[in-house]
Amino acid sequence: MIYRNPEDQVVDDAAIKELIDAYGERVTSLPPVAIVIAAYNEAGAMVCDVPVNRGQGAALRLGYRIAREGGASYIVTTDADGQYNPAEIQTVLAPVVAGEADFVTGSRRLGSQETKDMIRRAGVRFFASTISLLTGQKISDTTFGLRAMRAEVTSVVQLAQPQYQASELLIGVITHGYKVSEVPATIHRRRVGESKKGQNPLYKLHIPGVNNFFYGLRFARVAYGTWWRERQRTGQERPAGQSGSVSSSKSRSARIGPVDSAARANGSGPGSVDASASSAAPGGSWTTDAAKRT
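The structure assignment produced for this chain is given below.
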């Protein structure tokens, strides 16, 4: 786990210690699939409480660490506000378990969405096109919260954003050479609570377009900032004397390498999705609720 701020590690260390004290071996011996939700006191979940509100991004980062250190091989993230269908968890998880991808995200544009907000829809298309152009990876939806990944992926990517962490994780995964896939999925209207994203001094007035403007502005800052950070990182890691161009065959090998190694390690691969994905069935997964105080 890469911590940009040492104080975050201190907070997480203390939170994990309290979690282990409360739940014992349930924390240290997780099943193969862990479901991480950045919400407070989700029913049926182990709750890792943090005394300060550091945002959704920090809560998920803590949840990823708990899942990895607890022995989970795969991580699924979703929200507690009813926007995502739990029945689609296996849809996003199956390609990862099968060794076909390292990271899979749902896509409302490939599936469906209930929102009638045309500005929000246009924003999803715009940022998907922009990030696709910047990273060279075609992406249709950059903010979908229902995702599945190999657990070790989260230990490599730097996660520093308190909000809008979906784009930070996605860009980081792509630029580290992991294979990313999308599957059709549905996003429903929010059932409970309200989004903290896009809030501004005029938020409660619900002036058309204003909240979306602030949301888009902040999302753009995170997306472009993450891309620039990762661009600098890859430049520093490039061996001396190596040119900036990479042959297509080498690039392809770098992308599929993590997938192949995962498939070999787990004995999985194309044709074994059903048997491997059964670990995501009821009783084979566990929910870790990384609480964020609001």
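Interim note for the steering committee: The first strand starts at residue 33 and ends at 37. The mean pLDDT is 79.
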